[in-house]
Design goal:
Blueprint (H helix, E strand, L loop, with lengths): L13 E7 L4 E2 L5 H14 L1 E2 L3 E4 L4 E4 L1 H9 L4 E7 L6 E5 L10 H9 L9 E5 L8 E2 L5
Parallel strand pairs: 2-5, 4-6
Antiparallel strand pairs: 1-6, 3-9, 4-5, 7-8
Helix pairs in contact: 1-2
Amino acid sequence: MGPVRATTHTASPVRFEFVDIRLLHAHERVDPALLDRTADEVRRDGFLKKPILVADVDYVILDGHHRYEALRALGCRRVPAYLIDYLSDVVQIGLWPEAPVKEITKEEVLRRGLADDPFPPKTTRHTLRVTLEDVFTDLEDLF
């Protein structure tokens, strides 16, 4: 029998889960017109196509505020989410061109989410160095 080799497995910086909606914290407000369109689409289709993106330790929403609020308004108790190690280099943060601030940090996003002091809609723009697949989730599975 030959030598046994130890293999190193690195934990994925992203994992998919259904998260209790009460655990989530928004760091941005939503646009009411876009929220209405999003809620109507989810209700009409009967499913959510894309999970929201959430910081894995603090449960601050990074992307998907309108989807989250639409599910909340529809009475859902769970939200499909990709949980990510937010402070890792897998997540990059930037600003939308119309953002009312000129600089942003990940720490400020977390602080605002946890303090219930949200930015205006479409302030921060998060990009990932990994690809996240769409996960179609039936609306009835979220109640």
